[in-house]
Amino acid sequence: MSCDMYGDLDTILSNSSSELRSVICNNETFLDSCLDACEQEDCNDSGDSTLDIVYTVVIQVLVFLLVFGLAGSVGVYIGLLSQFILMPLIGFLVVAMFQTQLEPLYAVSLLIICASPGGSYSNWWCNLVNLDLALSVAMTTVSTICSAFMLPVNVIIYVELGYKKLDPDNAQEIIDLLPYTTIAYTLANVIVAVTTGLYFGYKFPARMKTVNLIGTCAGFLSIILGVVASSTSCAEPWNQDAVVYYGTLLPVVLGIVLAMGFATLARLPQPQRGAVSIETAYQNTGISLAVALSLGPKGRAAAIIPVAYGAWEAVVFGIYALMCWYIGWTLSPPEEKLWVILVNSYQDRIETDPRYNGGSVVKAADSKAVVTRVQAE
């Protein structure tokens, strides 16, 4: 409903018969719909441009610090196929499944998340439970840099072309709103952060603990910013339809399961299978969040999508990482207790791990270089 339909209600009533006036004035559903429509339009039109600028600047700073602080290592490049083809396709299929339930702006936000690999906390999870850290940081680095080309390509394929086929009535309006400039400078921000983070880690390895802490704090602050921004929008962040929550969970779970299947078929060593699974499904929610925060009150409502996706990442990857430890897919000794492996690094076991003989994608020399830096930190 549009508020304009009811803006001249007095004129309608004055030109109506007494019976019709009685019906309209006593119809609570009609009057409530009128009020809701007007309040929604007032909310959408009352954007504070200064607040939008503040949100945009703050999220760019936090995205830079997050990626810079957690990009201190390098390894062998692998997994681009699953990150740039598998995850965007999963996102599109989920959106197609719930197209009648997801708001168009929410759907587009989810598509952008699934097209944005390079979530830096994936390295933290792999390091925490001693999956293959060298492979993890390599995939984060390469996928982030390749995003300069692949993210716009996937946005065109799945948003401009795909979503337009799914929802031709609303898609064009959302596509016209997409701030490609914001996407471009957020992507450039991430690439610069990765590059400088790698250089800083190479030149000042002893200071990387402090830098990692800054990156971790920036990640938590970006989540808080998303919650606050969503709270100041036209929609309450925690009073959404259930599809918002299970719709953001599905890509995380499907990404892990399918990537684990492909890595197993490729006969990768188990620590690498775990790392590939986490890297594939762990997305850079900062890009989608930056887009949402640049679109005023209506766009800020969609900030709940990257916030919910990030929350599910924390829960699902925590469970998955513990599962990898439990079934013996990590580099830690199988007889060690959980609390012991969480506070110790066993990355140097790659050279002697029999699972890496003959089929290792990350060679021992490459892993040793990463392990040396991690231990120096």
Automatic annotation (TrEMBL):
Localisation per UniProt entry: Membrane
KW tRNA-binding (keyword) present: no
Keyword Transmembrane included in the entry's annotation: yes
Alphabetical keyword list: Membrane, Transmembrane, Transmembrane helix
GO cellular component, one term: membrane
Membrane spanning residue stretches: 53-71, 78-98, 104-121, 133-157, 177-201, 213-231, 243-265, 307-328
Alphabetized InterPro entries for the sequence: BilAc:Na_symport/Acr3, Bilac:Na_transpt, Na+/solute_symporter_sf
Membrane topology qualifier: Multi-pass membrane protein
Record-stated family: Belongs to the bile acid:sodium symporter (BASS) (TC 2.A.28) family.
UniProt protein name: Ileal sodium/bile acid cotransporter
Gene source species: Hondaea fermentalgiana
